[in-house]
Amino acid sequence: MHDTGEISDSALWLEASSGTERSFAILFDRYRKRIFRKAYAQVRNVADAEDVVALVFLEAWRNRAKVRIVDGSLLPWLLTVTNFVLMNQARTTRRYSRLIAALPTPEREPDHADEVLERLDRDTQLTAIRAAMSHLSTQEQSILDLCLIEELPIATVAAALDIPVGTVKSKLHRAREKVRKRLTVHGATPDFTAQLDGVHS
């Protein structure tokens, strides 16, 4: 029996898409932690992150005829699907938040502990970043996330999204400028805006 780590993603996916459950399970085990980390970084809840992982692999199975292996790896395509799942969840959360916001809020005792203030500051900045990115198109959000946050090479992102390299470069440039402007308006720190210039070619 071969070590499962020696079997390529291409071979495993060929078997999985033909109905071999064990091959699909190997791919799931190979990448589920990576997808979980990405999901948890946004949803900040273990159960919700696990739901995202399940949805990503469900989408992979449903769209198995469209799956793209990039440089021998299934991961770039899975990360792209993860972005779409998270965006859909974010839209649902925003709708729910608007309903909650319409309800009267109870008065709370102020808490002036330093750690609370620090957390609020971080949350405010994170909210500003997400708000800035939410104004981008779905494709721009994916490109920005894959290039800057996942640090994938532009060529890999192009292959994962099935678009030309030149399109990735131009959309990345426009997306960076849009986010930079919105972050400036929301008062985000220069540390994050500086990261917008770091891209792997």
TrEMBL record:
Belongs to the sigma-70 factor family. ECF subfamily. Keywords: Sigma factor, Transcription, Transcription regulation. The lineage of its organism: Bacteria, Bacillati, Actinomycetota, Actinomycetes, Micrococcales. InterPro entries: RNA_pol_sigma-70-like, RNA_pol_sigma-70_dom, RNA_pol_sigma70_r2, RNA_pol_sigma70_r4_t2, RNA_pol_sigma_r2, RNA_pol_sigma_r3/r4-like, WH-like_DNA-bd_sf. This is RNA polymerase sigma-70 factor (ECF subfamily). It comes from the Bacteria. Residues 27-95 form the RNA polymerase sigma-70 region domain. It comes from Leifsonia aquatica. One of its GO terms (biological process) is DNA-templated transcription initiation. PANTHER family: RNA POLYMERASE ECF-TYPE SIGMA FACTO, RNA POLYMERASE SIGMA FACTOR RFAY-RELATED. Pfam families: Sigma70_r2 (PF04542), Sigma70_r4_2 (PF08281). Residues 128-178 form the RNA polymerase sigma factor 70 region 4 type domain. Gene3D superfamilies: 1.10.1740.10, Winged helix-like DNA-binding domain superfamily/Winged helix DNA-binding domain (1.10.10.10). One of its GO terms (molecular function) is DNA binding.
